[in-house]
Amino acid sequence: MTTTNEEATARFVERFAAELTDAGMQRMASRVFAALLASESASMTSAELALALRISPAAVSGAVRYLNQVNMVSRERDPGTRRDRYVLHDELWYETFTRRDQILTRWEKILRDGAESLGPDTEAGRRTARTADFFAFLQNEMLGMMDRWRAHLDAQDAAQDAAEAPTASA
The pTM is what? Predict the structure, then answer.
């Protein structure tokens, strides 16, 4: 990688990490995640992460522990070594939003129970029922989006396969 590419990659990593941090993710975890995302193999060792981000191995360890707990990375052993390699999950965003869908389902149920407990004829009950309706709507829309995303990926893969297929010569 040329110095220019390394600088551009570092700028991207810091910029995306800042956005993740602004959205609520821990700062070091954001930087480690962005570095893994920007790496060609989507995997790096602790030493590689520390070097790329100019942080201590302890900072890498804490960040990776958090990312592992929230299922954003997994730990794999480098073949033939005692080193761990940290790897982004292949379907990271799909899995994240699928888990979010499960949370929405739980929230909707609790809100519906709450609306009933508060009384459907009370302002609090109506407000709580409206919130449950919102989460039901959101969940339904998200399921449709996820289906469309899968279809989009399938179409992209088919187009790429067709482009890479050898053409028949006359």
Answer: 0.69
